[in-house]
Amino acid sequence: MPYNLKNRNVLITGASRGLGALLAEKFAAEGCNVAINYNASQDRAQQVADKICNTYNCKAIIVKGDQGVLAECENTVQETIDGLGGLDILVSNAVSLTTEPHVTVAEDILHLGLDKDVYIRRPGRFV
Predict the structure, then answer these.
(1) CA 121: distance to chain centroid?
(2) What gap in Å lies between CA 59 and CA 74, rounded to an integer?
(3) Over the range 90-101, which residues count as b (16 or more CB within 10 Å of their CB) and which as e?
(4) Cα-based distances in Å from 62 to 2, 6, 65, 106, 117
(5) pLDDT tens-digit profile, the chain (127 residues)
(6) How far apart are CA 15 and CA 39, in angstroms?
């Protein structure tokens, strides 16, 4: 990667399998600490965390939260900050199954202390 990511703290939503798990491994390989978000697959999330900790000697935590529920999004971010000592990078990989627009999500994320440019991916649209 063109940037030095060593010791950065990364939260990846939907990281217990598939693309999210691959992203967690790639960030860990670059020296990042990783928060692996899951909704229902705790065992898979723990397997991903154990694998990257053992392979890349980094810190990895698992954080339960449904990313279609705003209160759980807030909790996921806060648990990541508490567990890793901060948050530098947010990868929004989880698919939200809600059809209700999150009009205030960007403001709510900024309220949580992420003051960088934040793009929220939703199928077919950007908020």
Answers:
(1) 13
(2) 21
(3) bbbbbebeeeee
(4) 27, 20, 10, 24, 25
(5) 577 899 999 999 999 999 999 999 999 999 999 999 999 999 999 999 999 999 999 999 999 999 888 889 999 999 999 999 999 999 988 865 555 554 444 445 445 544 444 444 444 433 3
(6) 10
